[in-house]
Specification:
6 helices, alpha+beta, 4 strands, Aspartate Aminotransferase, domain 1, single chain
């Protein structure tokens, strides 16, 4: 365990932490540019290098995002960490001033140290593809199947 900790600390000292923040920030920039109606939670404040919370564009429900992203091969969470798996909007987001409908559209994306830049890019492409499918669907807000 000590060897793993020393290895990680060496990687952080060599700039690995900053590189991963840059990948996260590129992902965020792509999402804000490509997903009209999306918004970064905590924009302008200090954030973890490996976590992004986004208010997703308005569609019928966040669970559809989770299902579609899962089918694309990515695991994401709804709301805040302490509300994962809950059907209700996160009480943390509500306490931050989010309206229930907006809090219900928040997805959280977390990465690990081994997550590569290409992984963030593939996630962005998957989200954009899902969004495009919904935008082009005549039943965008009335979908009945994930």
């Amino acid at each position: 365990m000590i060897a793993a900790l020393e290895d990680r600390e060496s990687a952080i000292a060599a700039g690995g932490h900053g590189r991963r923040e840059a990948w996260r920030d590129q992902f965020v920039a792509e999402m804000l540019r490509s997903l009209c109606g999306s918004r970064l939670v905590g924009e302008g404040g200090p954030r973890l290098w490996n976590t992004v919370s986004l208010v997703m564009p308005e569609f019928d429900c966040r669970q559809r995002w989770v299902v579609r992203v899962d089918k694309a091969g990515f695991a994401v969470s709804t709301g805040s960490a302490c509300a994962s798996g809950s059907e209700e909007p996160s009480h943390v987001l509500l306490a931050m001033g989010f309206q229930p409908a907006e809090a219900g559209r928040v997805l959280r994306f977390s990465s690990g140290w081994e997550t590569a830049e290409a992984d963030w890019q593939q996630l962005a492409a998957a989200l954009c593809g899902i969004h495009e499918t919904w935008k082009s669907s005549p039943k965008t807000n009335a979908m009945t199947t994930p």
